[in-house]
Fold:
Amino acid sequence: MAAARGPRQFGRMKRLFRRLLRGVGLAAASALVLSLATAAGDPHPLATAPAGPPDATAPTERVGALHVHTRASDGGGTLDDVAEAALDAGLDFVAVTDHHARPLTTPARRAGVLLVVGEELRVPDGHVVVLGGAATGAPELRIAAHPEGPTRPWRGAGRAGFDALEVWNWDSDWRDDGLRDWAGALALLMWKPEAAMLRLIDRPAASLERWDALLTEGEPVPGLCAVDAHQRVTLGAAGALPFPRYRDLFRLARMHVWLDDDAPRAPVDEAAAVVEALRRGRAFCAFDARADSRGTRVWAAGPGGTAGPGQTLVWSDPPPTLSVRVPDPGKPVEIVVVRAGEGPVHRVPGPEALALPLPGPGVYRVEVSLLRGRRAVPWILTNPLRIVEAGPEG
Structure:
């Protein structure tokens, strides 16, 4: 009986903390954080680090947020609120994806930020976030949303019904943490909301396992991270609070895309380029509230040329090498090279540029963590690059 009572007590305590988070604690924290932000500007600037010159596989980098809701569905802000928060957070673009609604009919720039047209749809297997389409001039990109989440997880097998996968989703991540994480987050919430949310971010092991299984089967599925931002917590009859704020979530986790060039574009063309980069996997995601990851580079090079994430290189003799370069966050770094279907093949310190021999053809992606004592906390997740056998003529 005692053994059975423990899990039940833990569950009750966990639910109590959630109620506190949604109730009095959140109200006080939100009011205080908002008042501090209004009075003193940005109290938690991002740590930044200089990046080295880009390599040939990544000429232009853009930073943005995916999966954002407004008042057109269940969000708490307007399009202008989203754009202003994105500007404060240093974003170049935001994908607005309300539930079965498109408050934006064509891509536009507001406050200097590109707003990409999107929508979140409920389908038999779960939810999909749709970007692009006729309004943008780009083919639709269908993203399986919160595939391992407690609400509406993705139930389909294989890759049917989607083109890309949310390998991390904020609205799913915070729901599966234990008592210790929640206690630490609540202690920080009033003073450092970003640090509080970081306490609840874990390596998304289940989603990464699903992703690697698809990659092993030969499916070229990009992996994306989504803030699933609402800026709204409903308190029943008491109304709702504007929390977590768009800006805090936009600084928490971000998508970095590599475009083919830096030529000025109209909003429609820029949105099409961003969606196409996401579709091709020319992107990585990072928890930039830990440290700014701009300038991260991953590429494989061999006699047959060079390839980065979302690209393909032919296996050669001598074998290709994989290079990884990340900005110096001022903390110990661990770089893990993962081969889909096999797991880690290299585990090395960073952030210095590396040249690692690849063991053979396969699909390779990179995870970068920051080391805090014995604990590794996730920082960067890249999309994979492919090393393939030469054809009959190779």
The chain has a mean pLDDT of 83. Residues 115 and 341 are 37 Å apart (CA to CA).
